[in-house]
What does this fold into?
Amino acid sequence: MKIKIIALGKIKEKFLKEGINEFLKRLTPYASVSILELNPIEIKDENLTAKILLDEGEKILSNIKPQDYVITMEIKGKQFSSEEFAQKIEGITNDGTQEIVFVIGSSCGIGKNVSDRANLKMSMSKMTFLHQFARLILVEQIYRAFKIIKGETYHK
It folds into this structure.
């Protein structure tokens, strides 16, 4: 199974980079996981936010293949427990999907063009947290999902 995380912006904090790298290392027995960082477009005029999100969306979409299963991280997306998320990942895998692509937009969100391409819109939480935490939380939950799928004890 291949998993790609497309994210706008770079992680600056060392502790977040270390945490992400640790979970990427732990994931190697289960899946090939890569992170593609794209540069967000700076918003200088709030009236142009929707246009900028669409432009960022074009950059994101150019890195997605037609057969990929796309999961966008969105505030209004569906929320899952860790067990439900594991079941979802297992179901996608069992359907013969070769690559799952997770998309984390910029701090302003995701363009409609990317949201429309999504097979699943997912929300991490109703809580608000720093945008850069999303990557660490996501890779940890992907790791947790594979441990649950394999019946291993990490998630207890």
